[in-house]
């Protein structure tokens, strides 16, 4: 159990975020909170730093802090692929998707899908997006946060999470996207600061990089420093699964998921949206070094006898129950006071994830469900419905916690779910943006068939884990499902040819080079220059850590 100083720091931080969120949300001008566009899209006034920080904060939750450290302990740097590969999909978002989203003036991604295809596609994506936001972005984050608070302070997991959710819900529901983005910007800074502190502490205790390599060399495990593994690697995530499977998950998550992309939809203009997405791409380089690497340091500290992990459970063969490795590192490597800062960082991840998801759910319910059935609805009615839906989503997420707690690794649980949701959505967005002949009927059928197929494969995987489906790495399964969806949509597009409207005729690229011809800032702020720099840095990192 931790002391009163650390508890006091954590409580003070929660109070600060609550006050800032309420002041920003309620204290803003009428355009910020009094209109539907102001409430759900921050009046389309967001600049690139806020967009980039908010994208990163919405993505990085307590799940990442806890589970990436666990993965670093279990398999080394391997799961860092989810962070560095994200840079490539954020480039896709910046170059190919942001212009269409902002040019069409949509408030939600289901709205964009209707303009490119039809109403049926919009309705289905709304349903899938709301469910995924509740399960992936809120419930799993709640679970990770509850485990941390229980481990560090001995709090009842469900009571503590309920309290945090109520506090987060207050400023999110009162202030809308503007309050969410401002608080997320603060939370990103706190989260990164906390992650740097634990990384430096682990590095210092280990005695540096070379000391860690010496331990790994002694145990014959230098492959833990490799990001790309062979087909026979026990992790079940070989290099080809990373390069073929991750893009399917990543394009859905970064380019077609309302919870993430909503920050871009509130951009002041196209350049702010593009540069904000690329800024997040640069930030995604950091997690490998400050989230994953500390877990690897913990492993070598354990192997060298400098870290006592018996409180987690160590069997006769020396295998560790690593689920609580991050919280144990906090208590064993940091002094009182700094522990409180780390707790604040963990709470930052939890609150930012929940607030972002609640805001996106309320936006979709208001625009994609309520307004579609009542076109005459006023801004006041839309905002009220959005607030009510956020409360319902939060309560439903709390009810899911006992079920999701059965996953051994929260991070793997999330990606397992995404791998079966993403393929049809990634397919219809990619073909819709890059292929003129992608038709409305094909998109609708691909979403329906692909979603049911993914659900069926997921269930077979759980019921028959030793079958071919159960033994296939989840990222390769995502790739196979994507290929099936592509085949379905291409065939149906020829059987049921597209009939473009004047609007949909503008919502696909005529050539791959067309996106690069858009207006750009001069100098280092040019999105083309930033794209080249980001590609170069990530490619070099993969060469170094291959």
UniProtKB/TrEMBL annotation:
It comes from the Bacteria. It is found in: Membrane. Gene3D superfamilies: Sodium/glucose cotransporter. Its main location: membrane. CDD domains: SLC5sbd_SGLT1-like (cd10329). GO terms for molecular function: D-glucose:sodium symporter activity. The chain crosses the membrane at residues 6-27, 48-70, 82-102, 123-149, 155-174, 186-204, 237-256, 277-302, 338-361, 382-405, 417-435, 447-464, 476-496, 527-545. It is a multi-pass membrane protein. Keywords: Membrane, Transmembrane, Transmembrane helix. GO terms for cellular component: plasma membrane. The keyword Membrane applies. PANTHER family: SODIUM_GLUCOSE COTRANSPORTER 4 (PTHR11819:SF195), SOLUTE CARRIER FAMILY 5 (PTHR11819). Belongs to the sodium:solute symporter (SSF) (TC 2.A.21) family. This is Sodium:solute symporter.
């Amino acid at each position: 159990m931790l002391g009163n100083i650390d508890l006091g720091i954590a409580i003070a931080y929660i109070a600060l975020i609550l006050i800032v969120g309420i002041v920003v949300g309620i204290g803003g001008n009428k355009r910020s909170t009094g209109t539907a566009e102001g409430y759900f899209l921050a009046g389309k006034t967001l600049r690139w730093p806020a967009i980039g920080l908010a994208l990163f904060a919405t993505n990085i939750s307590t799940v990442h802090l806890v589970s990436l450290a666990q993965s670093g302990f279990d398999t080394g740097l391997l799961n860092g692929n989810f962070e560095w590969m994200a840079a490539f999909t954020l480039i896709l978002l910046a170059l190919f998707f942001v212009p269409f989203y902002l040019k069409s003036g949509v408030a939600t991604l289901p709205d964009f899908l209707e303009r490119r295809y039809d109403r049926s596609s919009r309705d289905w994506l709304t349903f899938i997006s709301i469910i995924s936001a509740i399960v992936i972005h809120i419930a799993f984050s709640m679970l990770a946060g509850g485990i941390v608070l229980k481990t560090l302070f001995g709090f009842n997991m469900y009571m503590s999470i309920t309290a945090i959710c109520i506090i987060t819900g207050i400023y999110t529901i009162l202030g809308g996207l503007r309050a969410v983005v401002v608080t997320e910007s603060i939370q990103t800074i706190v989260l990164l600061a906390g992650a740097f502190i634990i990384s430096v502490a682990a590095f210092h205790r280990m005695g540096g990089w070379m000391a860690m390599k010496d331990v790994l060399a002694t145990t014959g495990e230098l492959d833990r420093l490799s990001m790309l593994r062979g087909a026979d690697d026990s992790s079940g995530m070989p290099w080809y699964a990373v390069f073929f499977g991750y893009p399917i998950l990543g394009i859905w998550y970064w380019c077609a998921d309302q919870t993430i992309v909503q920050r871009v939809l509130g951009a002041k203009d196209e350049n702010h949206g593009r540069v904000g997405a690329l800024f997040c791409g640069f930030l995604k380089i950091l997690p490998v070094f400050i989230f994953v690497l500390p877990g690897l340091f913990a492993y070598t500290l354990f192997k060298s006898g400098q870290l006592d992990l018996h409180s987690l459970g160590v069997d006769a063969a020396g295998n560790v129950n690593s689920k609580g490795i991050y919280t144990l590192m906090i208590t064993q490597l940091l002094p009182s006071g700094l522990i409180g800062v780390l707790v604040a960082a963990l709470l930052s991840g939890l609150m930012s994830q929940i607030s972002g998801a609640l805001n996106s759910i309320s936006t979709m319910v208001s625009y994609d469900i309520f307004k579609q059935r009542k076109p005459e609805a006023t801004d006041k009615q839309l905002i009220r419905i959005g607030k009510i839906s956020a409360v319902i989503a939060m309560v439903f997420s709390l009810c899911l916690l006992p079920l999701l707690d059965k996953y051994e690794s929260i991070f793997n649980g999330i990606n397992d779910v995404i791998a079966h949701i993403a393929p049809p959505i990634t397919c219809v967005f990619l073909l819709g943006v890059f292929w003129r002949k992608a038709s409305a009927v094909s998109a609708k059928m691909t979403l329906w068939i692909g979603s049911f197929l993914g659900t069926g494969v997921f269930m077979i995987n759980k019921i028959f884990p030793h079958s071919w489906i159960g033994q296939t790495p989840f990222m390769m399964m995502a790739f196979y499902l994507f290929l099936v969806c592509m085949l379905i949509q291409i065939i149906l597009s020829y059987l049921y040819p597209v009939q473009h409207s004047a609007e949909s005729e503008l919502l696909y690229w005529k050539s791959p080079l067309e996106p690069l011809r858009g207006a750009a800032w001069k100098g280092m702020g040019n999105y083309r220059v930033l794209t080249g720099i980001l590609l170069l840095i990530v490619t070099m990192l993969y060469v170094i850590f291959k």
